[in-house]
């Protein structure tokens, strides 16, 4: 979610939780705290807030400083948790991850799609599952057709359970969402464009589109 209007539409459509970002065309970056506060006031849904300062998965000391500052302020706001993750050359960058997230030590963390750049995802799941504050990993399930991704997601979910939930996300259009529900690959699905008018990745969130997804997830959609 980038705006209050997006958040309200998602809530009206039946969303369970919102991720708050800016610069969605860059994969989602740290939003302004003013926007987070406005969305928190406008909706009763749990909010996860992105901590990310560039469109890649690497970071710099200056960016870490900025993310730590944001994390400190978010820690005293009405949010459910933060979303963060760093990787370089196929390897986890845990020191950088902890440098950022330890600034808000009492709130949960989703490890975002930096996971998809890792050379050994199953080993990474074991490592991330050992960090008590991580309760979710956002992943597309890798490259390839939707069926192969569903199979990978099932494997990841089995490896991560029960400590960490695997959240399917990245390229989840309506058909991919339907397949994920049918295959029962995961119990959490993160959507972007599928919740927006015309599945436009930068369009406004549509309550009707979210409701269609909600109905599919509940087993009452076509």
Key features?
two-stranded antiparallel sheet; 222 residues; 9 strands; single chain; globular; TIM Barrel; alpha/beta; seven-stranded parallel β-sheet
TL;DR of this structure?
The protein is α/β, with parallel strands linked by helices.
Low-confidence stretches: none
Shape: globular
Proportion of residues in β-strands = 5-15%
Number of domains: 1
Order of helices and strands: HEHEHEEEHEHEHEHEH
Counted by DSSP, the helix tally is 8
Q: What structural category arises from helix and sheet content?
A: alpha/beta
CATH topological fold name: TIM Barrel
Strand segment count: 9
Return the CATH class.
Answer: Alpha Beta
Mean pLDDT rating: 92
CATH homologous superfamily label: Copper homeostasis (CutC) domain
Q: What strand order characterises the main sheet?
A: 1-2-3-6-7-8-9
Helix percent reads 25-40%
